[in-house]
Amino acid sequence: MYIPDINEYQLTSIVAECCGGVAVVYSALYKPNNQHVAIKRYFVDKSKEKANLIQQDILTRKELQHPNILSYLTSFVHGKELYVVSPLMSLGSCRDVLDRYFQEGLPELACAIILRDVLFALQYLHKQLYIHRSVRASHVLLDTNGCVKLSGLRSAASMMVRGRRQRQLHNLPPPDHDNANLMWLSPELLEQNLKGYDERSDIYSLGVLCCELANGAVPFSDVPTTLMFTEKVRGNRPQLLDCSSFPEPLDDGEMKNLIWNEPDGMYNTDSGVGDSADGVCRLRQVYAARKLSEPFHHLSEIALQRDPERRPSATQLLNHQFFKQIRKTDFLPSLIGRVKPIKPDANDMSALLLQEKMSEMDIEKQTEWDF
Amino acid sequence: MDPRMCRQISSSESLPDAENVEVEESNIIMPQESDDNFLLDGSPEPHSVTWLDDDQIDDLDINLDQNNLFFHRVDSADIIYRNKKKKCKMVGKYVMGDVLGEGSYGKVKEMLDSESLCRRAVKILKKRKLRRIPNGEQNVQKEIQLLRILRHKNVIELVDVMYNDEKQKMYLVMEFCVGVLQDMLESSPGKKFPQRQAHDYFTQLLDGLEYLHGQGVVHKDIKPGNLLLTLNQTLKITDFGVAEALDMFSPEDTCYTGQGSPAFQPPEIANGAETFSGTKVDIWSSGVTLYNMTTGRYPFEGDNVFRLLEAIGRAEPAPPPRCLGPALHSLLTHMLSRDPDLRPDVHQIRRHAWIQATPALEAGERLVNPRSRRSDEHHNSTVIPYLVERHYASAQEYFTERDLRHELGDNGSRTMSTAELSDGESTQCKRRWHSSCGRLPSCRLT
C-alpha cells in the first residue's frame, strides 16, 4: 500500500508530457521503500471535461490485475493537482523507443515479444468484457526487466452497460486532444453504424500496432483523417514494409512523380520519420533490404481484415506461428540494447525546483480519492 | 426513395442543389439496340427526368398532370446507371451527407466531423422559412439558449452552432440519431411497440423529464415525433422550440402559453386556460405518448384540430384496452387525469408497478428496428460517398446493377468504390500494392 502523500515521494526527473499538456509524468522515489515509481500529475483545472475520464481510468485499473497491464498504486490530490502513482517503466513507451532509437522499426523478435505480451493483456481485458480502444505504441510501456505493460485504459469501455452484457458498442472512444487515436481504430468502429463493434476492434488496432512497431511510422499518419477513414472502410490495409512489399527502391525522379501525383497534391510525406530526402532514401533502402518473416506478414494481415468476423481472437492469435520464434531465454532489453533507461538525474533542476515549490505550498489535508 | 420526391420537370429548369440527391435510377442510358438511345440527365431531349426534394418542388410551380412519364420495358441487366457525382461539401469542419429528415423550418442532414470522425446531424434553418412560421425566430433562439445549458444522456446535445450570413442559413449541429419513434411506430405492425420496448423508451423518457423538470425546464411538446434514438438505442428528447425555462424564484411552475402538437395537449390547454402547471403538461403528453406507443391509437381523436381540441377539452379519454393489463391500464388512467393536480409527477410515475417491473416480450412479438429513409438496415454513414468523390477523383462513372449487387454483397457498404471492382485480382494477389493504397505516402513509404 503506497501512502497517498506527496511528502513520501522524491521527484527525480520529468519523463514525459502527455495528453496535450494536461498531464506530466515524473519519475520519483518512494521514500518508505526506496522504490522507483512514476507519478502522473494532472492539471485538473485545465481539463474539466476530462476529469471523469481520469476517474474512469483509475476505476478501471483498480478493477484489473494482470502482469501485462500497468497497475495502479495510489492517487491523491495536492494543491490544485491530481497525482496518480504507477510503477515506473524505465524504458518508456514503444513510441518513445521508435522515435529515439528505431526510426526504421524494431527488430522482428522484439516485435514478437511485445505483441505477444500485448495480446496477453488483451486476452485478459476481453475476458473481463473490456474493449481497450487505444492499442498503440505510446500505450505499450517497457522496463529494464523485460516487462511489457499496456496502459491507456482511459479510453477502455466495458461491454457491461447498466448490468447487461452488450453484444456490441457504437460510440467512438472519448476524443484525445489531437484525434490521433483514430489512426489505430478499426473500420467498423469508425463507421458508427448499427452493426457496431466488439472486442475484435482491438485486434485490428493490434494489426496497426504490428505495422507501427515494424515500420517505425504510424500507418495513415500523413494523410487527412477523412482519407484514412475511407481507406479503412474500403478495406485497404497498411502493411509491413520489407523487400516483398517494397520491391524496388525508386529513384528520385520516380519518387517525385509519385508525390506530385497525389490527389489534390496536398499530402506530403510528413511522417515525422524521414522528413529530409536523405532520411526518406535511407528508410527506403532499409525496408527494401530487409526481409520480415512470412508468419509476421500473415499475422498483420489476418489482424487487419476488414470483416471483424474473420479476425481471430486474442487467444487464437497467441497460438499463431509468429510467436513460436520466441524462446524462453530471449530478453527484450538486450534485443533493443541501444535504448537507455530513464535515470534519475540529480541535476534535473526543473524537478528539484518543483519539489521545492511543493514543500512550500500550504499542505492541505491529504485525502485519497475515494471512488 | 420517397415517391413524393419524384417529379418531372423540364430540362431547362436550373437545379442548383440537384447534385446532392442520392444516386439516382433516373439517369438511365437506354441499351444500344433501341434506336431512341438517349441520355436522360441534362441532355437536350425533352424527356429529361430529375429527382427533386420537397424544397425544390416548393420552389417550382408545375402542374404535374400536364407531364407524362414514359416507361420503356428494359431488362434490368441492360440498364446502365450513371454514378451521380456526389459533390463533397464542407460547412466549417463538417462534411455534408444526405438528408435525414425535413421539417417546416428546413432540412436535417447527416454530417461528419472531419477531425473527430464523429457522425452528426445538422438542422439547417433558413431565415426565409423561419419568418413564415409563427414565432419561428424567437423559438429557435430560445431552443439554442436552452440546449446550450442542458446536458443529460436523454436530452439531445447541441454540439455546435454555425451561421452563414450570406446564404441566410443557420446550422445547429447535434448528436447523430438513427431514428424517430414516430417513424418507427408508423412502420411497425399495428403502429405500436411491444410493451417491453415501450417500457424501455418510456423509462428513458422519464429520466430525461426528471432532469428537465429538475432544471426548471418544461418541454411542452413531448410526442413520439420528438423522441429520437441513437445507435445504441438511447432515447433523446429533442425539439425545444416551444419549451420554457420556468422562473427560478417562483415556487409554482406556472406557464402561460402552450404551442405543442394538438393531439398531445392536455384539457387545460385545450380549454384555453390562462395559466396552468407546466410540468403537468409534460406528464399528460408523456401519457398520450405511452398510450400511443402501446396501443397504436390516441386517447382522443377528431376529424380536424378544432374537433380534436373540443374532444380533449370536454370528453373523457378513450379507456385503454383491457389487453394492456391492469398495471399499464392504471398508469395510463392516472397520467391522463383531467385534473392536473391529480396527475402524478415524474417521481410518482417511477414508483408505479408497470415501471418497476420490466414487461416480458410475449410470444410472437418482435422488437421494432429504427427505420431508415434509405433501404439501408445498418444506417451506414451517408457521408462516405461524398468523401470517396473527394479523395478518389477517378471514381467510375458508369455501373450496372450487377456491379452494384456485387459490391453490396462484398462489402455491405454503399461506397461507390471502383478500386475493389476493377481491381479484384490484385487484391487477391498476395501483398501486391492495393490500388489506392499505393497512392498513400503512409503505406508507400513509412
UniProtKB/TrEMBL annotation, chain A:
<dbReference type="InterPro" id="IPR011009">
    <property type="entry name" value="Kinase-like_dom_sf"/>
</dbReference>
<dbReference type="GO" id="GO:0004672">
    <property type="term" value="F:protein kinase activity"/>
</dbReference>
<dbReference type="GO" id="GO:0043539">
    <property type="term" value="F:protein serine/threonine kinase activator activity"/>
</dbReference>
<dbReference type="InterPro" id="IPR047173">
    <property type="entry name" value="STRAD_A/B-like"/>
</dbReference>
<keyword id="KW-0808">Transferase</keyword>
<dbReference type="GO" id="GO:0005524">
    <property type="term" value="F:ATP binding"/>
</dbReference>
<keyword id="KW-0418">Kinase</keyword>
<dbReference type="GO" id="GO:0006611">
    <property type="term" value="P:protein export from nucleus"/>
</dbReference>
<comment type="similarity">
    <text>Belongs to the protein kinase superfamily. STE Ser/Thr protein kinase family. STE20 subfamily.</text>
</comment>
<feature type="domain" description="Protein kinase">
    <location>
        <begin position="11"/>
        <end position="323"/>
    </location>
</feature>
<dbReference type="InterPro" id="IPR000719">
    <property type="entry name" value="Prot_kinase_dom"/>
</dbReference>
<dbReference type="GO" id="GO:1902554">
    <property type="term" value="C:serine/threonine protein kinase complex"/>
</dbReference>
<dbReference type="Pfam" id="PF00069">
    <property type="entry name" value="Pkinase"/>
</dbReference>
<protein>
    <submittedName>
        <fullName>STE20-related kinase adapter protein alpha</fullName>
    </submittedName>
</protein>
UniProtKB/TrEMBL annotation, chain B:
<dbReference type="GO" id="GO:0001558">
    <property type="term" value="P:regulation of cell growth"/>
</dbReference>
<dbReference type="GO" id="GO:0035556">
    <property type="term" value="P:intracellular signal transduction"/>
</dbReference>
<keyword id="KW-0808">Transferase</keyword>
<keyword id="KW-0460">Magnesium</keyword>
<keyword id="KW-0723">Serine/threonine-protein kinase</keyword>
<keyword id="KW-0067">ATP-binding</keyword>
<keyword id="KW-0464">Manganese</keyword>
<dbReference type="GO" id="GO:0005524">
    <property type="term" value="F:ATP binding"/>
</dbReference>
<dbReference type="Pfam" id="PF00069">
    <property type="entry name" value="Pkinase"/>
</dbReference>
<feature type="region of interest" description="Disordered">
    <location>
        <begin position="1"/>
        <end position="21"/>
    </location>
</feature>
<feature type="domain" description="Protein kinase">
    <location>
        <begin position="94"/>
        <end position="355"/>
    </location>
</feature>
<dbReference type="GO" id="GO:0004674">
    <property type="term" value="F:protein serine/threonine kinase activity"/>
</dbReference>
<keyword id="KW-0547">Nucleotide-binding</keyword>
<dbReference type="GO" id="GO:0005737">
    <property type="term" value="C:cytoplasm"/>
</dbReference>
<dbReference type="GO" id="GO:0046872">
    <property type="term" value="F:metal ion binding"/>
</dbReference>
<dbReference type="InterPro" id="IPR000719">
    <property type="entry name" value="Prot_kinase_dom"/>
</dbReference>
<comment type="similarity">
    <text>Belongs to the protein kinase superfamily. CAMK Ser/Thr protein kinase family. LKB1 subfamily.</text>
</comment>
<protein>
    <recommendedName>
        <fullName>non-specific serine/threonine protein kinase</fullName>
        <ecNumber>2.7.11.1</ecNumber>
    </recommendedName>
</protein>
<dbReference type="GO" id="GO:0042593">
    <property type="term" value="P:glucose homeostasis"/>
</dbReference>
<dbReference type="InterPro" id="IPR039154">
    <property type="entry name" value="LKB1_c"/>
</dbReference>
<keyword id="KW-0418">Kinase</keyword>
<dbReference type="InterPro" id="IPR011009">
    <property type="entry name" value="Kinase-like_dom_sf"/>
</dbReference>
